[in-house]
Write a structure and sequence with these properties.
The protein has one helix and 15 strands. The chain is mainly beta and 270 residues long. Among the domains are: 57 residues, no CATH class; 107 residues, Immunoglobulin-like, CATH 2.60.40. It is elongated and about 120 Å long.
Length: 270
């Protein structure tokens, strides 16, 4: 037998390549740390900065209302005028009186303070014209004494304490058909005190008809005024601080009686 061509008879063995047993690609999972970008610390922009705003004040304007457009002094005067008008109105309302079944409202005139002569009557809100000059002249005012005191208090006695040390007697006596009172004042017991010889005593409620004054004693006769129920005598005394008076008062309400004793009352006076 013909030998077949080696090439024709070549039975190539089937390719039994071993299956590829390459290990499957098990790539390890990426364990890279997640990207945590650090926050940006760049300086804030100018727009993000916090600054204080400038204070914005309103433009100055003249005050509005009833007191606008005037000086501070004038506005104060106008406010005072309003307060006075309110007070006058309240007084007028409270002082309303009823006469004959009709209520009459009193009118209070408020003089203007701006130099004008017009006056405003409360309740009418109208100005009346200033009074006309009639040419009449007012009498000149009487001169002022500066001050006046009702029931003034006398100054204290300079020689206070003399009266309690003086012994005084008073006796009714009839002399030439008239009734008189004989007075006798003893020596003052106050240290350094005596009667003022050169100054005559004064009497009220009667008159002195006989007098003898010494430094240590005073004797006098007083004729009471007709109808008088009391008499008083003021005698000058002196002491170290100065000069004052000794007052003696007698009650004559019991009537005269020859030889009757009276009880004098003594007081220290200025």
């Amino acid at each position: 037998m013909d030998h077949l061509d080696d090439d024709s008879l070549s039975h190539d063995a089937p390719s039994h390549d071993a299956p590829s047993h390459d290990a499957p690609s098990h790539d390890a999972p990426s364990h890279d740390a997640p990207s945590h970008d650090a926050p940006s610390h760049d300086a804030p922009s100018r727009e993000d900065t916090h600054t204080l705003m400038n204070e914005v004040l309103p433009a100055p304007t003249m005050p509005q209302g009833p007191f606008g457009g005037a000086t501070p002094r004038r506005r104060a005067m106008q406010k005072m005028e309003r307060l006075l008008s309110f007070a006058a109105t309240g007084a007028a309302i409270g002082g309303c009186s009823t006469s004959g079944g009709r209520t009459s409202e009193p009118t209070v005139d408020i003089p203007a303070t701006d130099g004008g002569g017009a006056v405003v009557a409360v309740g009418t809100n109208t100005a009346s014209p200033p009074p006309k000059d009639t040419g009449a002249t007012l009498p000149p005012p009487e001169p002022s004494i500066g001050y006046a005191v009702v029931d003034p208090m006398p100054p204290p006695a300079t020689c206070a304490g003399v009266a309690p040390t003086v012994k005084a007697t008073a006796t009714w006596k009839q002399d030439k058909g008239r009734w008189v009172v004989e007075l006798a004042l003893g020596k003052p017991g106050f240290t350094g005190s005596s009667y003022v010889v050169g100054q005559a005593p004064t009497a009220y409620g009667g008159k002195v008809v006989n007098l003898k004054v010494g430094a240590d004693a005073v004797a006098m006769t007083v004729e009471p005024t007709a109808g008088s129920t009391s008499i008083g005598v003021q005698v000058a005394v002196q002491c170290a601080p100065g000069t004052s008076h000794l007052d003696l008062n007698l009650d004559l309400s019991a009537g005269p009686k020859a030889g009757a004793k009276l009880a004098p009352s003594l007081y220290d006076r200025w």
